[in-house]
């Protein structure tokens, strides 16, 4: 089986559009429309040619039962877990691989040992002073944290279901358990692990979980917020296309995980509030009657309802626990599990209704300390709900009973049913909390993005490590759709075609489909460029109806399953009915950019062949030419020509110019007409009668990426028209193409603009205009005007400014800063 | 460890840096468009006909976080002119172009900046007396506050675009126009 997988793997590892085996070595023809089949992996019984799960599709299942407790003063988690692993593959497994993500922070881990140090000075202008390497305080704090604590797992027991010790080997962040008996296809096995580890301080050590300390809270010893993720030893994915996905966790790549059911018991100080994946099973034991009734009320509310009010949360900051409480959660069909706990949390909730869905009410909830302030009160839970409203239309009804947003030290991260989001308010000197427009936009955007991730990849379970773009690209696309549906006046950025141009023209980029863990594959390649491509596919190439249908079909097919890029490409084509191989090839397999140039426009007039008409046209064409400067100069000098001096000497040619029509021409015309076949005569007569306006347009493809040619046409009578020429026009010659446009008599063009609405990420606007426009550079334009933006002043804060008296005003004019 | 701290004391005192808010999901990408403008007919450069135009595009959110971290000041780039000026000055200090031959920094004039949707643009310009050949470029914008910041510099000249990528490291990197 491994052999077959290796062979498939080899087909997979094609990183360029240049297909092995077929090489065009003559001329410069490039087939931009060649079908992608030779590059995609062969369809098989697990993933078929339609892009659906095949009739023998399988995936493993891993269920977890975990009892964990948090010791707050030492920030240490101690737990005991049972894993039940079901082998649905056709292979017999002799060992199992688990991932121990916390081991990344051990002093001797590959991640820690290979951290680089930048000895260069941080951007100092003064070159002379910058000879000594400098260490940031940030790096110092991290080193000290590493020195003060022992990070990584303490694993105290690995045993089978009966309690017998199991042989296991730890390899960095991986653990291999050797099974006493090989696990046959269709069979399950269970084992237990007891473990403990120290939560790390997220701001010091980095990472996506840990604690944040608040030393200034009104409590001796301050308070912490704990975000707990990547916290338990969990099964590594075993798939049909890669076998075990066991690669050392270095910190920046994300995860591939299996679906399963979880039941988790979390023991924390009894004055904490816990937010977690899953549904709380024992609310009577951990919530007060007031909290329970508020929660019930929120199910049918149309605005968030506080379960723990901000005032209660702030008062609770000075509390000291008198014992512990155990919160019990169950989560079904999830690929991961995360939770958060703190005594600082305020908690609001609102039920989101999905009539007809598996979960008709989804509890949207937010947990945040006072530092989240009004920003969170106003926008967190409602953003969660907005996300579900939008994504439900594009993918499927939200498939879990709850959807949560938690504030803590992590800027933005997603787990099934729970997300961690960082934006906060700023504390002003007068004790109030304010925020800028950028912070507001960031909070709404990050909540939408993280909740969106619950759909992609938490449920449409693509491989985040190998194809980061499959979840980040899809999610960036959808989060920008949701953002524009929230408020198109808020300036969202990064996901639209026009934002990607500087990246796409640069010569330091790799194709999106480059398969690697390389650190360079970030940002624009995984988030922005795929998102721009999907916008173009939706708004310009397929149109919303075809795109939305195909995208929903893709989401439905791979809900709770593991898709690969070829499954997405194949599904979109098959469900939309449009050949998109040229599009995938150009956008995902190459580093070409879009730059279509309108080089020349010829205006033409139909010859009638009738000499009485044609010759007189020629005469007026010549008369329309500018007068010869020498002749004009002569007339100005008052010079008299020979014909003016001897007007009496005249002949035939003085009366008849070269455009004179004689019967010889008329006879030739009649011969021509008689020589036409009937159908030719019909076509000819009609064309002459219509006397249409003919324009021949010549385009060249400078950027390489073939795209449809969208024309904005302006006519001399003031009317406009938009014309869409499908990309297939480039199929015979991907470099140059000509197109004939015909308009009815009288409709003459005054201007043609290629891609007038900036839909195609065309990198050079100057060659899109015919006649050419003078296009100032950005800097030239700036120098001529100095715009001031009124948008988003922090008016909340500025309002508190005291009006200056005359004295104060003249004082500050003397140079002291305001 | 302690002695090393002491030895670097001078360096650290001048570089007071704190970790800004966590940016686990920010792209942390900066873009600089550097365009060399020369006479179309290939004649020699004069300060009137030859110049370098520099346009930096940074995300407003990252820029505000950096200002708060590095300058200890609350920053509202979309509305506060003083914050804009501070940020523009900061950018001009972190971006340095040196002539590799002479070692002299190019005289970049800070023109100002503007908000465009979610980006803040900062503009600079240098008049050139001769056509440059070898440059050394440092681009450390936002790196003091955002450790994972990557800055891309697109150099446009003679119809081509060449890109330098500064990934977590301000450089300098060299570039040759030939």
Question: Can you put this structure into words, describing what you see?
Answer:
The complex is a heterodimer of chains A (818) and B (178). With 818 residues, chain A is an alpha+beta fold. Chain A contains 24 helices and 32 strands. Chain A has a seven-stranded mixed beta sheet. In chain A, a hairpin with a 4-residue loop joins β28 and β29 (720-725). The N and C termini of chain A lie far apart (73 Å). The model of chain A is unreliable at 1-19, 120-131, 787-792 and 814-818 (pLDDT under 50). Chain B has four helices and nine strands. Helix content of chain B is 21%, strand content 37%. Chain B starts with a helix and ends with a strand. By secondary structure, chain B is of the alpha+beta class. Chains A and B meet through α3, α4, α9, α11 and α12 of A and α2, β1, β2, α3 and α4 of B.
Largest sheet of chain B: 6 strands, mixed
Structural class of chain A: alpha+beta
Question: Which residues of chain A sit in consecutive blocks of at least 5 with pLDDT less than 50?
Answer: 1-19, 120-131, 787-792, 814-818
Strand percentage of chain B: 35-45%
Q: Give the CA-based shape of chain B.
A: globular
Strand order of the largest sheet of chain B: 4-5-2-1-7-8
Uncertain runs of chain B are 1-25
Structural class of chain B: alpha+beta
Q: What is the N-to-C order of secondary-structure elements of chain B (H for helix, E for strand)?
A: HHEEHHEEEEEEE
Features:
A: alpha+beta, 7-stranded mixed β-sheet, 24 helices, disordered C terminus, B: 178 residues, 6-stranded mixed β-sheet, 3-stranded antiparallel β-sheet, disordered N terminus
Write the layout of secondary structure elements.
The complex is a heterodimer of chains A (818) and B (178).
Chain A: H1 2-12, E1 61-71, E2 76-86, E3 93-99, H2 110-113, H3 137-148, E4 154-160, E5 168-171, E6 174-183, E7 188-198, H4 202-205, E8 210-214, E9 223-228, E10 234-235, E11 238-239, E12 243-244, E13 260-269, E14 273-276, E15 279-280, H5 283-286, H6 289-298, E16 305-308, H7 310-316, E17 324-334, E18 339-342, E19 346-353, E20 361-368, H8 373-394, E21 402-407, E22 412-415, E23 418-421, E24 426-427, E25 433-434, H9 437-455, H10 468-486, H11 497-505, H12 524-541, H13 544-557, H14 565-576, H15 581-589, E26 596-604, H16 611-623, H17 629-637, H18 642-645, H19 652-655, H20 663-675, H21 678-690, E27 693-701, E28 709-715, E29 720-725, E30 736-743, E31 749-754, E32 769-770, H22 778-784, H23 795-798, H24 806-813
Parallel strand pairs in A: 1-13, 20-21, 21-23
Antiparallel strand pairs in A: 1-2, 2-7, 3-6, 3-10, 4-7, 5-6, 8-9, 9-18, 11-12, 13-17, 14-18, 15-17, 16-19, 19-20, 22-23, 24-25, 26-27, 27-30, 28-29, 28-31, 31-32
Helix pairs in contact in A: 8-9, 8-10, 9-10, 10-12, 11-12, 13-14
Chain B: H1 2-7, H2 9-14, E1 29-37, E2 51-59, H3 60-71, H4 81-94, E3 95-99, E4 109-116, E5 119-127, E6 134-139, E7 150-157, E8 160-167, E9 173-176
Parallel strand pairs in B: 1-7
Antiparallel strand pairs in B: 1-2, 2-5, 3-6, 4-5, 6-9, 7-8
């Amino acid at each position: 089986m491994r052999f077959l997988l290796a062979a498939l793997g080899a087909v997979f590892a094609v990183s360029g559009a240049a297909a092995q085996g077929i090489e065009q070595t003559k001329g410069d023809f490039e087939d931009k429309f060649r079908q992608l089949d030779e590059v995609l992996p062969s369809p098989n019984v697990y993933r078929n040619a339609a892009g659906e799960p095949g009739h023998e599709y399988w995936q493993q299942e891993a269920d977890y039962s975990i009892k964990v407790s948090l010791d707050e003063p030492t920030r240490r988690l101690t737990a005991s877990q049972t894993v039940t692993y079901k082998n649905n593959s056709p292979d017999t497994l002799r060992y199992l691989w688990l991932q121990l993500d916390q081991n990344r922070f051990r002093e001797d881990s590959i991640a820690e040992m290979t951290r680089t140090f930048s000895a260069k000075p941080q951007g100092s202008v003064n070159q002379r002073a910058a000879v000594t390497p400098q260490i940031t305080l940030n790096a110092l704090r991290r080193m000290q944290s590493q020195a003060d604590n022992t990070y990584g797992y303490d694993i105290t027991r690995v045993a089978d279901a009966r309690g017998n010790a199991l042989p296991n080997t730890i390899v960095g962040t991986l653990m291999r358990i050797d099974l006493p008996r090989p696990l046959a296809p269709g069979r399950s096995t269970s084992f237990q692990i007891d473990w403990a580890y120290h939560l790390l301080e997220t701001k010091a050590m980095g990472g996506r979980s840990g604690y944040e300390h608040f030393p200034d809270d009104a409590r001796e010893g301050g308070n912490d917020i704990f975000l707990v993720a990547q916290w338990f030893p969990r099964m590594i994915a075993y798939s049909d296309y890669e076998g075990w996905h066991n690669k050392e966790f270095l910190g920046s790549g994300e995860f591939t995980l299996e679906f399963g059911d979880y039941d988790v018991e979390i023991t924390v100080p009894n004055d904490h509030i816990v937010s977690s994946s899953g549904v709380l099973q024992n609310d009577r034991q951990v919530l007060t009657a007031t909290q329970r009734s508020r929660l019930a009320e929120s199910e049918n509310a149309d605005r968030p309802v506080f379960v723990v009010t901000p005032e209660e949360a702030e008062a609770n900051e000075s509390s000291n626990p008198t014992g512990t409480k155990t919160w019990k959660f169950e989560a079904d069909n999830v690929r991961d599990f995360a939770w958060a706990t703190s005594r600082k949390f305020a908690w609001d909730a609102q039920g989101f209704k999905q009539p007809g869905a598996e979960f008709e009410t989804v509890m949207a909830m937010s947990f945040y300390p006072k530092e989240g302030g009004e920003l969170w009160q106003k926008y967190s839970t409602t953003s969660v709900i907005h996300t579900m409203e939008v994504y439900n239309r594009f993918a499927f009804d939200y498939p879990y009973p709850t959807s949560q947003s938690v504030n803590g030290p992590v800027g933005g991260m997603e787990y099934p049913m729970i997300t961690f989001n960082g934006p906060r308010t700023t504390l002003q000197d007068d004790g109030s909390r304010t925020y800028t427009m950028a912070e507001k936009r960031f909070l709404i955007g990050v909540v939408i993005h993280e909740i969106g991730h619950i759909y992609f990849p938490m449920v449409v379970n693509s491989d985040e490590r190998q194809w980061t773009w499959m979840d980040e690209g899809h999610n960036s696309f959808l989060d920008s759709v949701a953002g524009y549906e929230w408020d198109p006046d808020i300036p969202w950025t990064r996901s639209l075609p026009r934002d990607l141009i500087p990246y796409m023209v640069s010569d330091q980029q790799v194709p999106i489909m480059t398969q690697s863990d390389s650190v360079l594959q970030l940002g624009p390649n995984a988030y922005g460029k795929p998102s721009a491509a999907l916008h173009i596919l939706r708004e310009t190439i397929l149109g919303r109806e075809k795109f939305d249908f195909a995208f929903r079909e893709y989401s439905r097919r791979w809900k709770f399953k593991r898709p690969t890029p070829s499954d997405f490409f194949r599904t979109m084509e098959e469900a939309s009915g449009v050949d998109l191989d040229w599009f995938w090839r150009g956008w995902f397999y190459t580093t070409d950019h879009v730059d279509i140039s309108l080089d020349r426009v010829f205006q033409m007039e139909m010859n009638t062949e009738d000499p009485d008409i044609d010759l007189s046209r020629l005469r007026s064409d010549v008369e329309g030419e500018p007068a010869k400067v020498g002749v004009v100069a002569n007339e100005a000098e008052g010079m008299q020509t020979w014909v003016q001096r001897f007007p009496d000497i005249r002949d035939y040619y003085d009366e008849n110019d070269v455009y004179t029509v004689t019967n010889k021409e008329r006879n030739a015309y009649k011969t021509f007409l008689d020589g036409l076949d009937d159908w030719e005569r019909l076509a000819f007569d009609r064309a002459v009668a219509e006397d249409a306006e003919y324009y021949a347009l010549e385009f060249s493809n400078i950027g390489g990426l073939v795209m449809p040619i969208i024309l904005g046409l302006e006519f001399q009578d003031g009317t406009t028209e938009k014309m869409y020429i499908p990309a297939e026009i480039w199929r015979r010659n991907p470099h140059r193409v000509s197109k004939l446009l015909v308009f009815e008599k009288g409709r003459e063009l005054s201007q043609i603009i290629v891609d007038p609405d900036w839909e195609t990420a065309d990198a050079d606007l100057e060659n899109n205009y015919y006649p050419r426009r003078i296009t100032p550079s950005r800097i030239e334009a700036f120098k001529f005007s100095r715009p001031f933006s009124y948008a988003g002043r922090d008016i909340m804060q500025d309002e508190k400014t005291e009006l200056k008296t005359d004295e104060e005003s003249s004082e500050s004019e003397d140079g002291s800063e305001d | 460890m302690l002695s090393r701290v002491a030895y670097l004391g001078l360096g650290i005192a001048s570089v007071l840096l704190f970790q800004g808010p966590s940016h686990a999901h920010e792209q942390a990408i900066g873009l600089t468009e550097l365009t060399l403008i020369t006479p179309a007919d290939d004649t020699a450069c004069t300060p009137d006909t030859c110049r370098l135009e520099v346009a930096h595009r940074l995300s407003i959110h990252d820029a505000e976080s950096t200002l708060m971290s590095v300058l200890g000041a609350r920053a509202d780039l979309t509305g506060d002119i003083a914050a804009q000026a501070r940020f523009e000055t900061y950018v001009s200090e972190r971006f340095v172009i040196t002539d590799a031959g002479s070692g002299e920094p190019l005289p970049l004039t800070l023109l100002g900046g503007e908000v465009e949707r979610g980006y803040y643009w900062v503009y600079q310009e240098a008049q050139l007396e001769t056509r440059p050949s070898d440059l050394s470029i440092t681009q450390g914008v936002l790196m003091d506050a955002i450790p994972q910041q990557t800055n891309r510099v697109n150099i446009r000249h003679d119809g081509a675009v060449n890109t330098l990528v500064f990934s977590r490291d301000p450089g300098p990197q060299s570039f040759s126009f030939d």
